[in-house]
Amino acid sequence: MNARSEDLTFSVLPFSRVVGQDELKKVLEIAHVMPSVGGVLVSGERGTAKSTTVRAFARMIYGRLPVTLPINATDDRILGGWQVDALLRGRPEEMKGLLEEADQSLLYVDEVNLLDDHVVNIILDVVSTGLLVVQREGLDRSGIPVSFTLVGTMNPEEGGLRPQLLDRFGLMVPVGTELDVAVRRDILLTVLRFEEERRKPESDWLHDGVSADRANRDRIEAARSAAHQVVLGAGAAELCARIAIAFGVAGHRGEIVMAQAARAVAALDGRGEVSTGDVAFVAPYALMHRRPEAAYGDAIDWETKDDELLDSVVTETEVDRSSNAWSGRGEADHGRS
Q1: Catalytic residue among 193, 198, 253, 271
Q2: Are residues 154 and 278 in the same domain?
Q3: Is 193 one of the catalytic residues?
Q4: pLDDT tens digits, one per residue of 78-107
Q5: Does 211 map to a domain?
């Protein structure tokens, strides 16, 4: 289909035109390619283009804006229930909730840290099981298949999430105010250009962005189709385990998410096996919210000391692997002699 023939209302910038936020863009791709990683939690202050980036990604991948769950949403609105108008007319009609509306799309929860814990639990249960259970007044619908990419955003200055809820988000990515002058300039110029171009009956600039989005979507969908064929070798699996131990992560969800996310990175790069670099790349996003300090409400930013620890674990693992390989070769030579 030609880009100009698509019914497009440019309510959001094309994803390919979003300047900056490269980490967030990559993590969103990973979450779509490998849904089993679970949801994405985006942490950052207001005005850092969190919402713009997520909305643009949803528009690119699914052809529509994400389903947005407001802070004040009732259980009926989230899970589904009866249509009030129909009940008043004496003709009961079921109403789908936001979770069903988000099926095969993206569910966006802004300020997820301000939601009631039980609501967050409901959403995360659906993400992990792929099933929605609705048991309300006179309504019993069990095992409704629902699949969506969950993206929650939060401003840490307004409070955090309980560790039990943090752990259930697959990946976490911090976003901040851009400090590079050139990038900040380009962001400003892009925003102004978008406001100008969207008023035109025809805009080559916007349609070129849509064409680039289509190519990007095809690349991501191809990676999604190939991701489950990507091999996680014993060496990469051991590295995941070592990193999780080094960072004091409780339970095993951290290394599982790390492994699945690394497979997605390899698939996006067109490779059939996970590399050490893939594991090292995804480790911060899989572990920053699972470290012990997160349980005590401390800052969960990934710092230089964390990079240094990660590098040391990777180096140590590679050295041990080389030593074991030489040891095995020596034993084999000794056996032949």
Answers
A1: 253
A2: no
A3: no
A4: 887 655 555 555 665 677 888 888 999 999
A5: no
